[in-house]
Specification:
The complex is a heterodimer of chains A (492) and B (163). By secondary structure, chain A is of the alpha/beta class. Chain A is 42% helix and 13% strand. In chain A, helix 6 links the parallel strand 4 and strand 5. Chain A is globular. Chain A starts with 7 loop residues before the first strand and ends with a helix. Chain B has one domain: Lipoxygenase-1. Chain B contains two helices and eleven strands; from the N terminus they run βββββββββββαα. The radius of gyration of chain B is 21 Å and the shape is elongated. Classes of the chains: A alpha/beta (492), B mainly beta (163). Chains A and B meet through helix 3, helix 15, helix 18 and helix 19 of A and strand 7, helix 1 and helix 2 of B.
Chain lengths: 492, 163
């Protein structure tokens, strides 16, 4: 199957999730194959899991830069990287493309490309949100530029890569987004469907052993939350029509037998028109094919809308179409703080949404931000109270879990960062240092980093006592503790 | 001990007499005059509990239409939804009824309609209730490496709650 005529080898690099095949490389494969090129995908992220077995968590920590300095791990990483280089040399593609999905993929990319460049004579290109240093903010693509300057890669691609990569394969390295920031945002309905042939049979950590595939319905967001940098990357919200989304899901069902899907975009209900189209199209497919309601199961991120924008009928349709679980950026229990965040909903509106989810046996997951700059003690208390009031939904499984986060980080590219002066938000570090957690709001002087961490701990203890499941808290708290110590000793 | 509230939503016909018992203790004894709900508060010791809804006093000759049907049960405000169908009905069928002729069962599952005298019984509720709710209603699949540990939380608390 693999020949030395292969046009491009696409690689998933550690560290990213293992729950289902990654979307990015398969999406790109769909585009390059549609343009007539040959392409294969190697998931080295999954390969790391397979090669390290019960020691995987040590390598997870190593590549996510949570630990270093263990000679045994260093030696094993070296061996693994060498084996990956050998794999690429055997395949001998014309181009190697590495998907740097998030910042967590940067260390592996750095180490792997350094070794690969010594033996491989083809072209090396990287892309993905992780080529930015912090989050996905386009103005700070240090990593891509840095790798280029180090001659460890030949190209980086900013933004949507589907057309840029095809252009690169045809020899046009001047296309917008290749080695520069002036990329074009694409019309998503024109992009070919992803191809999962190389990955679908691999041993991903599927829930209940049921194969699951990602689906991307949109890029960008209809909201402009103060703490989020998404608009730096995707200036406008673009989305695929519900019919096209349903067609992709049905194709994956008919081709691979997959009935479980997860939406990877920032929100599945950014366009209510497209969302309803999707629900109706799926229900219609079930009816035409004598399949039960909810034959497919899918989940995704979800925004709380005004009550007149999303009606009880919508939730009934969601249940019938198979939407089982939504992730809601709740952030706080204080309407005052949430308004400053520009979230555009109240706790009462959130409660109405949860009630509808509960009535229709749909589940949800909250992500939270503790210690927002304008959060006062009474706001924090409102967050605690909100969870007390929602306790019944935690106990009956409607709220499946909480991500309490690692308190508010002021990141480059976010409105909070861009408007620091106007907001009166003070960076406590030296000019040029990252702001991150190292800030103070003079109007709210009690909210020191220590107090933010104290509230974060208090919130976790409170919700656990109430019966909520908290996810990933150890990792968040460890990061908080390390950051606190670094800030205290001036090494943040 | 855990303070526990049970709220029973019901519909009815006639004027059924209903007793609500938890672990054999009567918490309510009602003549139901309209559809509605009955709420009781109990202090429960740790362990497994028996919840009973007893329909009594029906005269099979004169109260033929009388019945009580359990629609929902909320425990500490949580609608237990499908768990309701784990109630088992033990009808008190009169000895002259043909039901007895072929030794039909006197333990009915999936039937919350008390048309005869008799009782609905549920013996699967356990306190402390939070683990019971988790076991019955949570459908959690935590991704690898994303767990939360009480010990580390307490360690952080020591570090950040002492000035």
């Amino acid at each position: 199957m693999l020949t030395d005529n292969l046009d491009i080898l696409l690689i998933n690099i550690p560290i990213s999730g293992l729950q289902y095949p990654p979307a990015g490389t398969s999406q790109l494969k769909g585009s390059v194959v549609d343009a007539g090129f040959t392409c294969t995908i190697l998931d080295l992220n999954l390969d790391l899991f397979n090669k390290t077995g019960s020691d995987y968590s040590k390598f997870f920590d190593y590549f996510s830069e949570a630990t270093h300095g263990d000679p045994e791990i260093d030696a094993r990483v070296d061996q693994i990287l060498d084996s990956w280089v050998d794999d690429v040399i055997k395949i001998n593609p014309r181009v190697v493309g590495i998907s740097v999905f998030t910042m967590m993929c940067q260390l592996a990319t750095r180490l792997f490309t350094k070794k690969l460049k010594q033996k491989y004579t083809g072209k090396l290109v990287i892309g993905g949100a992780g080529i930015s240093t912090n989050g996905i903010a386009s103005a700070y693509n240090d990593f891509g530029a840095e790798m280029l300057n180090l001659n460890q890669i030949d190209y980086f691609i900013r933004g949507d890569g589907e057309i840029a990569l095809v252009e690169l394969l045809t020899g046009n390295d001047q296309y917008p987004g290749i080695n520069n920031d002036s990329y074009k945002q694409l019309s998503l309905d024109t992009i070919p469907f992803p191809e999962y042939d190389d990955l679908i049979e691999l041993n991903y950590q599927y829930d209940d052993g049921l194969k699951m595939l990602p689906v991307n319905g949109s890029r960008g967001c209809v909201r402009a939350c103060s703490f989020c940098d998404i608009h730096e990357h995707w200036k406008k919200f673009t989305f695929r029509s519900g019919h096209v989304l349903a067609e992709e899901m049905i194709t994956n069902y008919e081709q691979y037998g997959v009935t479980q899907f997860t939406f990877t975009d920032s929100l599945i209900n950014g366009s209510m028109k497209a969302f309803r189209q999707l629900l109706f199209a799926l229900i219609e497919y079930y009816e035409k094919n004598n399949l039960p309601d909810a034959h497919f199961r899918f989940n995704g991120q979800f925004i709380v809308r005004r009550l007149n924008q999303q009606t009880p009928k919508d939730y009934q349709l969601m249940a019938r179409a198979g939407c089982t679980h939504v992730m809601i950026g709740t952030e706080t229990g204080s309407d005052r703080v949430r308004e400053h965040m520009r979230k555009q909903f109240t706790t009462a509106e959130l409660a109405a949404v949860i009630d509808q989810l509960d009535k229709n046996d749909l589940n949800c997951f909250f992500s939270m931000i503790c210690g927002y700059p304008t959060e006062r003690q009474e706001d924090h208390q409102q967050t605690l109270d909100m969870f007390t009031n929602f306790k019944k939904y935690a106990l009956n499984g409607t709220i499946t879990g909480l991500n309490l986060g690692a308190t508010l980080s002021v990141d480059e590219g976010t409105p909070l960062f861009n408007e620091m002066t106007d907001l009166g938000l003070m960076h406590l570090g030296d000019t040029g240092d990252r702001v991150g957690l190292n800030w103070l709001m003079p109007d709210n002087p009690d909210l020191t980093l220590r107090e933010r961490i104290r509230r974060r701990i208090e919130l976790q203890e409170h919700v656990v006592d109430l019966g909520y499941h908290v996810w990933n808290a150890d990792s968040h708290l460890k990061r908080l503790k390390i950051s606190y110590e670094k800030i205290a000793n001036g090494t943040y | 001990m855990e303070r526990t509230n049970f709220k029973f939503d019901f519909t009815k016909a006639g004027l059924p007499l209903i007793k609500l018992l938890v672990d054999g203790k009567i918490y309510a004894n009602h003549r139901c005059t309209q559809d509605g709900s009955i709420s009781i508060d109990c202090e429960l010791k740790d362990g497994t509990h028996v919840i009973e809804i007893v329909h009594y006093g029906k005269n099979y000759s004169t109260d033929t239409d009388t019945h009580f049907e359990l629609q929902k049960l909320y425990i500490n405000e949580v609608d237990i939804k499908q768990e309701l169908f784990n109630f088992i009905q033990y009808p008190d069928i009169p000895p002259w009824d043909n039901w007895h002729v072929d030794n039909h069962p006197l333990e009915w599952k999936n039937n919350l309609y008390l048309g005869h005298n008799g009782k609905l019984m549920y013996n699967e509720f356990i306190t402390p209730s939070i683990p019971w709710f988790h076991e019955r209603f949570s459908n959690i699949h935590q991704p690898q490496g994303m767990r939360s540990n009480e010990e580390f939380l307490q360690e952080m608390k020591k570090d950040f709650f002492n000035d």
